[in-house]
Design a protein that fits this description.
There is one protein chain. This protein is mainly alpha-helical. Helix content is 87%, strand content 0%.
Length: 137
């Protein structure tokens, strides 16, 4: 059982490492804001989900209490809302590009940038909260 738990932690750490590398290297294939939104969303999802997997193990081992678990749940829900907003903005951008409507493209691009910022902030809040609680990320 210990071997399996170690493997789960190593896989989570590997996913986190992969996500960070992807962000640092950039996305040379991202030629549009919609594609960038998709990549940012996927990279962030990998990172946060890996961290939440480590949180799950932490809860099993340390039993931090209902209030602490609710804090993490609230932060995670805030992150998920931002994730959905980014995907929605990316979809709107694709639709505006397809329609060839410059005004809608501008509005959608602004929404994409705002959603990316919200997703980045909310994912950072989740990661910071988990670190503050003692989860080894």
């Amino acid at each position: 059982m210990k071997r399996f738990a170690s493997l789960a932690v190593n896989c989570s750490a590997l996913a986190l490492y992969f996500a960070v590398c992807l962000v640092l290297v950039g996305c040379p294939g991202c030629s549009s804001p919609a594609q960038t939104a998709y990549v940012v969303g996927q990279t962030t999802t990998i990172t946060v989900e890996a961290a939440m997997g480590l949180w799950n193990e932490f809860v099993k081992q340390k039993h931090p209490g209902v209030e602490v678990e609710q804090k993490v749940k609230d932060a995670y829900n805030h992150y998920r809302t931002a994730d959905v907003a980014l995907l929605t903005a990316g979809k709107a951008m694709l639709e505006a590009q397809t329609a060839g409507d410059a005004a809608k493209q501008t509005a959608a691009q602004t929404a994409c940038h705002e959603a990316e910022a919200a997703l980045t902030a909310s994912s950072a809040q989740v990661i910071a909260l988990l670190r503050d609680l003692g989860v080894k990320l």
